[in-house]
Amino acid sequence: MMAGAGRLSFTNITALAPMVRVGTLPMRLLALEYGADVVYCEELIDIKMAQCHRVVNEVLDVVDFVAPDDRVMFRTCEREKDRVVFQMGTADPDRALIVARLVEKDVAAIDVNMGCPKEYSTKGGMGAALLSDPDKIEAILKKLVTGVSIPVTCKIRILPSLEETVSLVRRIEKTGVTAVAIHGRLKEERPRHPLHCDYIQAVARAVSIPVIANGGSLDLVKTNADIEEFRKATGASSVMLARAAMWNASVFCNTGPLPLERVMEDYLKYAFQYNNHVFNTKYCLCQMLRDKVESPLGKQLQAAQTNAEISEAYGLQEFYQQTQDQLRAKRDVLQSFTQPDQLVMDGDVSTLAVKFQRREYPAHITPKMFLLEWSRKEKLQKPLYEMAQRSQDRAFQSTVTIGEKKYRSSRWEKSKKFAEQAAAVVCLRVLGVPEGRIGEEDSGLVCKRKREVKINGTTEEEGCHKRHVADGQQETDDSEDHHKPETPARTTAEFMRSFSGVCWTSCDAAVVGFLHLKASQFIRDVLMKLHVVVQTAFVFPVFH
């Protein structure tokens, strides 16, 4: 719906409302496919967005706004460029303008959230907190209207009296905004409270700019046919849907609703194509399932930890694999035209601009493993990692020392583990050693050492495999034991600390559990002597 000079019009439209964790790219594209005229992104906070830099992602054909810790805060694409509204949370006119100018070439309009009643928004003076400060509302909107070339709108809630509400919207209109969206509830009210359609109707009569009615999903809008009835009941120019669209985005279809299974599959295809974060995908699907979240499908979805596992739950393995193959092929082509990373010396440290991308390595393999095995092969001391943390965003950077030489990535990572992996990648690439990426020929470095000696019935090769599997889990410690002694024996103190927080009530379980550890013969003897004590109903204490 475009007005003059290619500007987005807010007259007689149906829009996807801004929803935290829901209004990401896959849901916005799904809503547009089903018939929405305009889509709003989730509220994004100005402080975080102001730190972002714009990145053209040629693999996904998207534009990303990336934070210093490399999180993608906002992702958009050409398909929605003329119909997506960027909503920000702000309480500062200058910072609002910085963010608006950052994104204005990639979105159709800017919206300011002035209605969110949640504490994470209001505690910073944003959202519904602005309703009690009309001077600040006016300052923010005027700054934006005069500072950017695209339409500016805002979304509010009603005030305690009809007169106050109309007065505020008239003041908002004078700032030059293109439209105003009104959620017909007080900031203290929740969806269970009835919607005040009369307030929206009074405002629509009092101003000349388009008024977008919001808040009718629970009682007033259940199907596409209800949208027009809601518009008439409020006297508004347009309608904005949140929960009704979240539950089933086909509410925008004028041909009738689609089965939920079809909607979820359509959503997943966008999520896979645009590499949506797995936990965001899970969240949106769970909102669609609603009371069926404990069904067999819901439980399988909740157990999934990767997009591949989600594709299995929905029978979309073939589509997922094809999508991944296409993205990988495109990435390879682009990389073939990209200049290799330039080695830069920072004092005595060799640096490359490298990010650790977990998806580029098999689940049970990491660069740190390859570096550790290479150091053993070359009879060098184990790699030593030193960590630094940046104060402004708490990002991490690691320097690895091996063979009396130091290596570091010039890029900062979101976790200590990723920072160490990035340092290992730099070291391996500078040395010309394989790093274990998918598609590399088998170098024989990892899990190829076989020894005759067995430790508690486990060969070192098997133990190596177990360590590698554990390393593949992002939340486990992937240090490759480079701070631990090679001997299997453990000190008594280390042994007892390993049971911190564990309370054994069964003697047999305790003995079996202890004997499965790489404990010294002395400790095993002590445990056998304690066997009788445990059977008398004593419980092992918690050691700290």
From TrEMBL:
Return the annotated region ranges for Disordered: 459-489
**Where in this chain does the record put each DRBM domain?**
366-433
Q: Which GO terms describe its molecular function?
A: flavin adenine dinucleotide binding; tRNA binding; tRNA dihydrouridine synthase activity
Name the source's superkingdom.
Answer: Eukaryota
Q: Which PROSITE patterns match?
A: DS_RBD (PS50137), UPF0034 (PS01136)
Essential cofactor(s): FMN
Sorted alphabetically, which keywords does the UniProt record give?
Flavoprotein, FMN, Oxidoreductase, RNA-binding, tRNA processing
Write out the GO cellular component annotations. cytoplasm
Coiled-coil spans in chain: none
Q: What is this protein called?
A: tRNA-dihydrouridine(20) synthase [NAD(P)+]-like isoform X2
